Amino acid sequence: MEKTFVCIKPDGVQRGFIGEIIKRFENRGLLLGAAKFLQVDHAFAEKHYAEHVGKPFYNGLVNYITSGPVFAMVWVGEDAVKLVRQTVGATKPAEAAPGTIRHDFAAKMDRNLIHASDSPETAEREIALWFAPDEIVAWHNSNFLWSFGKNS
Prior knowledge:
Order of helices and strands: EHHEHHEHHEHH
Strand order of the largest sheet: 2-3-1-4
CATH architecture: 2-Layer Sandwich
Radius of gyration: 15 Å
Oligomer: single chain
CATH superfamily: Nucleoside diphosphate kinase-like domain
Distance between the termini: 18 Å
Structural class: alpha+beta
CATH topology: Alpha-Beta Plaits
């Protein structure tokens, strides 16, 4: 099963969307593998956004992610990266499809509530940055098979 990284950003935490966002991923059949609530410091934010160093929006990203607590998670499932990205919606909320998190709860890109890995490779890097291996729980529930089981 594929793993992906998701982070509810400070605006999503402050606006009380942690439960709603978890519910949406659970409704897709994904399994929560790890979660933590934390305040990101400047040095850690620079590591997370290292690929954006030198871009005009870099400082804004670092300032935004460090402005309040975040809720970081690992989600597990078949095609987890794709399912999560689809559930989150386009980066620009005005372009996000109806029913996605960003369409339903965000109004502008600078406050788009949530970060989600954009590829399995990025997910692997981000999960390793945010979580120690022993913080990720491997488990299954009976509903997981109803979402990702095979008809064979």
